[in-house]
TrEMBL record:
Keywords: Membrane, Signal, Transmembrane, Transmembrane helix. It comes from the Bacteria. The keyword tRNA processing does not apply. It comes from Pedobacter boryungensis. Pfam families: SH3_3. This is SH3 domain-containing protein. InterPro entries: SH3-like_bac-type. The lineage of its organism: Bacteria, Pseudomonadati, Bacteroidota, Sphingobacteriia, Sphingobacteriales. Residues 21-84 form the SH3b domain. The keyword Membrane applies. Coiled coil: none annotated. Residues 1-20 form the signal peptide. The chain crosses the membrane at residues 109-130, 137-157.
Length: 238
């Protein structure tokens, strides 16, 4: 009897561990993450709608323990939909993302090479056939050179962001202060903290990280940034 009870306990423990590593999708517009399973406990963050979240412990049927930016937290299970019981599949998603990045980079190089070739051909034709019409030759040349300049600025010159950008919406991150070309100070409203982290700019996307959480900001113009995912808000330069 004791042996059977011991085996049953082990099986139950294994089963709980297996079920505690499930992948869920958020159904709510903005799902609050609390410090404990108490519904009145402190809110330490939130997860946007349709985001995937890893459930670490589902033994409490009302509040699941999940992995968040700064460690772990608890969310209401009623706002989650189960996706998969094998978290390793989530890691496999990153592989095509890396491949896509390389493809995009190659596409930019090919596009720039084609643009450069077309502009050179246009200049050649202008100087070949418009030599008798000097005003038209000059105007056409200026237009071609201007197009080349904007292509150079848009695709070759590295974008630079400086200054402090803030948001008035209810977002986890209140402000981004770009003090140097490779580091930014971020104000986290839910944790009431400031932290400084490196960042990179890829095309018009600013990418930085807070521990295991990736923060993405799209550069709309030099005074406006648009956040995605955990950072879903509009930030304006002060």
């Amino acid at each position: 009897m004791t042996k059977n009870f011991f085996i049953l306990t082990i099986l139950l423990f294994i089963s709980l561990n297996a079920s505690g590593q499930d992948l869920y999708k958020v159904k709510a517009d903005k799902l609050n993450v609390r410090e404990t399973s108490d519904p009145k406990s402190k809110i330490i963050g939130f997860i946007p709608q349709n985001e995937n979240v890893m459930v670490l412990d589902s033994s409490n049927t009302e509040y699941f323990k999940v992995k968040v930016n700064n460690g772990e937290g608890f969310v209401s299970s009623g706002y989650l939909t189960k996706i998969s019981s094998t978290p390793s599949k989530q890691a496999a998603i990153s592989k095509p993302m890396v491949e896509q990045k390389g493809t995009k980079s190659n596409s930019n190089i090919i596009f720039l090479a084609l643009v450069a070739a077309v502009l050179l051909i246009m200049l050649f034709l202008i100087f070949r056939f418009l030599t008798n019409n000097k005003p038209l030759m000059v105007i056409s040349s200026i237009i071609v050179i201007t197009i080349g300049y904007f292509c150079y600025v848009g695709f070759i010159v590295k974008k630079n962001i400086t200054g402090k950008f803030t948001s008035e919406s209810d977002s986890q991150y209140l402000s981004f202060d770009f003090k140097s070309k490779d580091s930014v100070t971020i104000e986290d409203t839910y944790l009431d903290t400031l932290f400084t982290t490196p960042y990179v700019i890829e095309d018009n996307i600013i990418r930085t990280k807070q521990q295991e959480n990736t923060i993405l900001l799209m550069i709309l113009d030099e005074k406006t940034l648009v956040g995605e995912g955990f950072t879903k808000a509009v930030y304006h330069k002060k």
